[in-house]
Structures are given as structure tokens and as C-alpha cells.
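Lecture notes, part 5. Sequence design as translation. It can be helpful to think of inverse folding as translation between two languages: the language of shapes and the language of residues. The source text, in C-alpha cells, appears below.
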């Protein structure tokens, strides 16, 4: 597998641990290193970003404001290899918004689906979509149990 390079992951599952660490440190440089330059990201509100610059810019704004004191907990992912250099990941996350959020401290659970690819020996996200769990009849946020 070669040597570990800064900012890259040895396996697709390592990406989720680095995602959590970058979020909790509010480190947008580390966050950006998780994505290929041409990656795509759909946030939990349906906003679509193409390219790591848009992905980082979108997250930098919320980490400087409403999520400045948030934390994220990510469960171990289900990893479905497609090839030696591509995998689909599904994983649960729990965002714990803090006092900086207009609604005050509260948890939000999401289910994330991501495609990870390995280029030049480095695993990074190629595509990621984040879905908030909501009761379709009431619009109420649903926390997984």
C-alpha cells in the first residue's frame, strides 16, 4: 500500500475518521484534503457543490458561524468495494450543534452516501451526499435510535 501521505487515507474507511476529525477541529484545510479536486458534495439541505474549492468554501462559512462550536460523531461505515480503486460508503453521522446555532444546542442525525476513489495511491471522496432524517408527514427531524 505504500507510505501514508499527509491528507490521504490508506483505506476508504479511513476517510470517515478523518472527516470526523477535520470537522471537530474545524480545520477546513484538512477537510479539503479528503476530496478530489473535481469532487461533488450535496449537503443535507440539497445544496450542490462541484469542486473541492466550492465544498470547502461552503463548509468554511458554517464553521465560522452556526457550526463553530459543533461536533460530529461518525459511525463505522459500510464499505462496498467496486474495484481496487473505488468503493461506495454508507455511514451515519450525528451532528451536535452548539450554542452558536440559532436554534441552540441540538443533535441532527444524517445518513451519508459517498463514493471514494484512489488516484495515485490516495483515497479521497469523489462524491458525497448527506441526508437529514425527517418524518415525511410532519417535517420533524428524526433521531435514529
Amino acid at each position: 500500500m505504500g507510505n501514508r501521505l499527509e491528507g490521504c487515507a490508506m483505506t476508504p474507511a479511513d476517510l470517515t475518521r478523518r472527516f470526523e476529525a477535520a470537522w471537530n477541529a474545524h480545520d477546513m484545510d484538512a477537510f479539503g484534503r479528503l476530496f478530489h479536486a473535481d469532487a461533488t458534495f450535496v449537503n443535507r439541505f440539497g445544496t450542490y457543490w462541484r469542486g473541492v474549492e466550492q465544498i470547502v468554501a461552503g463548509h468554511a462559512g458554517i464553521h465560522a458561524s452556526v457550526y463553530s462550536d459543533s461536533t460530529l460523531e461518525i459511525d463505522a461505515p459500510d464499505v462496498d468495494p467496486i474495484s481496487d480503486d473505488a468503493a461506495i460508503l454508507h455511514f451515519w453521522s450525528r451532528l451536535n450543534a452548539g450554542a452558536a446555532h440559532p436554534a441552540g444546542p441540538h443533535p441532527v442525525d444524517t445518513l451519508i452516501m459517498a463514493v471514494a476513489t484512489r488516484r495515485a495511491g490516495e483515497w479521497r471522496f469523489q462524491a458525497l451526499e448527506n441526508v437529514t432524517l425527517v418524518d415525511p408527514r410532519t417535517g420533524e427531524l428524526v433521531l435514529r435510535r
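The translated text above is only one of many valid answers, since several sequences can fold into similar shapes. The beta strands are 35-42, 48-50, 71-74, 78-83, 86-97, 106-119, 122-132.
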